[in-house]
Amino acid sequence: MPKSKRSQRITISKSSKKLKANRGLELKQELVKKIRSRFDECSHLFVVRLYNERTEKLQTVRAHFPPSESSFFFFGKNRVMQLALGRTPATEYLPSLAKISPYLVGKVGLMLTNRSPQEVLEYFNKLEMQDYARAGNHVKETVVIDEGPLDGFQHTMEPLLRSLGLMTTLKKGIIHLLQPYTICSKGDVLTPEQAKLLKLFQRPLAQFKIKVKAHWNKKNEQVQVFDLHDEDDEDADQEAEEMIEQDDEN
């Protein structure tokens, strides 16, 4: 019996997965190469810890330390960045870099620069930018909205506020809150609804900041570690333990 000349369905899922895996490997290799290439022109390496990271605010930091002045930031998978530096003395790219790898856990990145350590530390110690907390963030204060007219809200927003849990009514085109409403309490982990209300009522409870976690000096091959343990760092500590366990299993 002759073969059918009709169009036949060809499964390419395996091929797609293979292509994605190859592309992922290429991206990791590119990151390793990019990091290592900057050691030729930079004398200092910093591990920087990000708090409440925001892309637009990170751009401000990048502008202060531009590539034209031999300052470079790298953010990627921590294990890939560890690979670029080397995890052991036998595999480290330059002397003492393996001592930096254990600190590449949590929400961190690498900064390579020729700026002096004093200048870098002073800048980051002063860096604090307010922003709105997002869902999943822990809040450190209680926010209560008093009953009465809500200034700054158009009458068309009344259904939205009611859908977010507020008891409201319209009086002569003005939204009134019928009873005090607690948006969040100190220690809460924000829900999406709470985060939206905080933004609507213009209550920024988050702070974008960057702190130096560790420093490597190319000249003397010395490593300096900074103690950053605080409430915000507990999640990073947990992630560090999980990553170490995964590495041991692999």
Automatic annotation (TrEMBL):
Keyword terms: Cytoplasm, Nucleus, Ribosome biogenesis
List where in the cell it is found.
Answer: Cytoplasm; Nucleus, Nucleolus
Instruction: Give the matching PANTHER family.
Output: MRNA TURNOVER PROTEIN 4 HOMOLOG, MRNA TURNOVER PROTEIN 4 MRTO4
Q: Which family does it belong to?
A: Belongs to the universal ribosomal protein uL10 family.
Its source organism is Rotaria magnacalcarata
Primary location = cytoplasm
Q: What GO molecular function annotation could you give as one example from this UniProt entry?
A: RNA binding
The family database entries (Gene3D superfamilies) matched by this protein are listed as: 3.30.70.1730, 3.90.105.20
| Segments of skewed composition (Acidic residues) | 229-250
Provide the Gene Ontology terms for cellular component: cytoplasm; nucleolus; preribosome, large subunit precursor
What sequence ranges are listed for the domain Large ribosomal subunit protein uL10-like insertion? 133-201
* Role noted for this protein: Component of the ribosome assembly machinery. Nuclear paralog of the ribosomal protein P0, it binds pre-60S subunits at an early stage of assembly in the nucleolus, and is replaced by P0 in cytoplasmic pre-60S subunits and mature 80S ribosomes.
Identify the Pfam families for this entry.
Ribosomal_L10, RL10P_insert
Assembly and interaction partners: Associates with the pre-60S ribosomal particle.
Q: Where is this region: Disordered?
A: 225-250
* BP GO terms, sorted: nuclear-transcribed mRNA catabolic process; ribosomal large subunit assembly; rRNA processing
Please give the name of this protein: Ribosome assembly factor mrt4
